[in-house]
């Protein structure tokens, strides 16, 4: 293998089962050297080989020439019609491995849906109180870290669009699809002294305040509920600031809710709103 202009031999004990075994070697490079003489000759990754499978009795099998050993990076190109309407447009990259996408020569970003989150970290409850650790409030266990990728409508033409995918480790492009998403509910919460911002996408406006509480509300988006204390006019204040708007911002201060100076209050504002066509 090549690394930083040097070569080394990598050996790893493995356990094989009876029958067919799949051996996968992945070599990835983040960035390449692009200066100095002969920079294009600097080896990286699996540098030539050979690749051997050595048995218990020093029986050696050369795997280098086995068909299918090298999974080549692949370019895919297709076209699609612009979805009707004003809803958000996304690429569903399910089935792909790892790579990068372009729509009409605009970079959508890197995709890696083959990276699956573990199954053992999620819980039915979520509580951020206390010291933080990465396992708190983990969601989407057993699923890709990201599957849908936003395509701004400003990237799209009025008729036909070109989609290009660069796949690094192998995938099934027949599972890729162009979809639209309608965002119904939006949520936000902000502590005393900060600003809460809400925004609908795709030309939608805030049509209804489903929940609003200034005090110590509990729960999370979709399941907010009032805590032990609450200002009764919270919803009216938020409705006045946000109804009919594509986006709104609310300064979270006790005075705004008629409480006077409340710098010692550990209050916050939680809001859930509904977006709809204007």
Automatic annotation (TrEMBL):
Query: What's any GO biological process attached to this entry?
Result: carbohydrate metabolic process
**Keyword Repeat assigned:** no
Q: Which UniProt keywords apply?
A: Glycosidase, Hydrolase
Q: Which residues form the SUEL-type lectin domain?
A: 190-276
**UniProt protein name:** Beta-galactosidase 7-like
UniProt xrefs under PANTHER family: BETA-GALACTOSIDASE RELATED (PTHR23421)
What Gene Ontology molecular-function terms does this entry list?
Answer: beta-galactosidase activity; carbohydrate binding
Question: Which species is listed as the source?
Answer: Cucumis melo var. makuwa (Oriental melon)
The organism's lineage is: Eukaryota, Viridiplantae, Streptophyta, Embryophyta, Tracheophyta
InterPro entries from the xrefs? BetaGal_gal-bd (IPR048913), Galactose-bd-like_sf (IPR008979), Glycoside_Hdrlase_35 (IPR001944), Lectin_gal-bd_dom (IPR000922), Lectin_gal-bd_sf (IPR043159)
Keyword Zinc carried by entry: no
* Pfam families named among the record's database cross-references: BetaGal_gal-bd, SUEL_Lectin
